[in-house]
From TrEMBL:
This is Flavin-dependent monooxygenase. Residues 4-345 form the FAD-binding domain. It catalyses: a tetracycline + NADPH + O2 + H(+) = an 11a-hydroxytetracycline + NADP(+) + H2O. Belongs to the aromatic-ring hydroxylase family. TetX subfamily. The lineage of its organism: Bacteria, Bacillati, Actinomycetota, Actinomycetes, Kitasatosporales. NADPH binds at residue 40. It is found in: Cytoplasm. The keyword NADP applies.
Amino acid sequence: MTPHVTIVGAGLGGLTLARVLHVHGIPVTVHEAEPSPAARSQGGMLDIHDHNGQLALKAAGLFDGFLGLVHRGGEASRVLDRHGTVLLDEPDDGTGRRPEVHRGDLRRLLLDSLPAGTVAWGRKVTAARPLGDGRHEVTFADGSTVRTGLLVGADGAWSRIRPLLSDARPAYIGRSFVETYLFDADTRHPVCAGTVGGGSLSALAPGRGILAHREPGGVLHTYVALDKPLEWFEAIDFDDAEAARARVAAEFDDWAPALRALVTDGETTPVLRTVHSLPAGHRWDRVPGVTLLGDAAHLMAPSGEGANLAMYDGAELGEALAAHPDDIEGALTAYEKALFPRSAAAADEATRVHHLCFDADAPHSLVRFFTDHERAA
Ligand SMILES: Cc1cc2nc3c(=O)[nH]c(=O)nc-3n(C[C@H](O)[C@H](O)[C@H](O)COP(=O)(O)OP(=O)(O)OC[C@H]3O[C@@H](n4cnc5c(N)ncnc54)[C@H](O)[C@@H]3O)c2cc1C
C-alpha cells in the first residue's frame, strides 16, 4: 500500500495533490509554513485553462465547485499602447476556455475539500535529509522532525526539498512587478475602471508595462512591470508607500493619465515581486522516495501557466500514486517521465511570451501573438 504521503507546501499544487490522494483514500499530511489559511492575501485572478488546471480540478472532483467561483465577464482582455489607444479588445465570449477565479477562492475550495487536520499550519521546513531506503527526515523551524517514506516538495520557488534532487537555483530574469490596488473603482476611480474594462488590461511598451485585472467587488489589481536590475528596486523604500509609488510612476511619465492613475492613485502599500526562474528544462535523476511539483520543479517567468501547471502536476502525481499502490518508484518514474518534457515546453513558451510582451516592438508583438493564436484555433 502507498505509505502516508508528506507534502511540503499548501499552495495550489500541494493542495491539489492532497485532494486527489484523499479522493483515492491515500493518507496525506501537508506541512505549510504560514501560520493559518488567512495569514496572507492570496494574490489576484487566475485564468484556469481547459487543458491543465481544469483537468486537475476534475481529477480532484471539484470542477462543479470551481464553476461556482468563476468571475463572469472576467475573460475579457484588452491590449493598449502607452497613449491609452486600445489595439485589441476581446470581450468575454462565455465559452469558458479560460475562466477567471480569485486565487484565494480556489485555495479555499481545495482546503475545504480536505479532512480537518490534513494541513499542518505554522510548519516551516528548514531542512530535509535522506535516511536511506527511500525514507527522509524533514526538520521544522521549531526543531521538530518527521520521518516519511514519501516526500513531495510543493514549496514553491525557494523549495527546501529541491536540494535533495537538484543543485539548481532560481535566477533573476531581469524583470520585476510592483503590485497596487484600487477599491470600489466604479464609484471612486471611474476613469481607471473604464480603462481596465471587465477583465484584464495589458498596456505595454519596450521594457515596461502596466497590467491590471478587475477582481470581483470593483477591485482593480495592478502589476507594474519594469525591466530593471535588482539593485534598482533595492534602492526604493517600499515601506514608504508614497515615495515608492512616485518612484515607480516616474517611469511612466509620458503615459496616458488613465494608465498612470492605476499606479499613482494606488490605495495599498506597493508590493515588490521580483521574478526568478529555474533553468528551462530543469530535471533530476530519480531519487527514491522524493519528488517535486509546481514552482519547486519548474519555476518560470509568469505567463499565466504556473498555477495551472502546479495543479496539473499535483493531479498527475496523485493519479500516478493511486495507479501504482505497491510501487512508489514506478509511480514517481511515470510522473517525472511526463513532467520533464511538459515543464520544458511550458518554460520555453513562458520565456517567449514574456519576451514578446516587453520586446522592442511592444505592444504590437503581443497583439500579433493573440491574433495569430486565434487564427490557428
Ligand atoms: C506576479 C506573478 C503573477 C502570476 N500570475 C499567474 C497567473 O495569472 N496564472 C498562473 O497560472 N500563474 C501565475 N503565476 C505563477 C503562479 O503564482 C505559480 O506558478 C504558482 O503559485 C505555483 O504554485 P505552487 O503550489 O507550486 O507554489 P506556491 O503557490 O508558491 O505555494 C508554495 C507553498 O509552500 C509554502 N512554503 C514555502 N516554503 C516553505 C517551507 N520552507 N516550509 C513549508 N511551507 C513552505 C508557501 O507558503 C506556499 O503556501 C504568477 C506568478 C507571479 C510571480
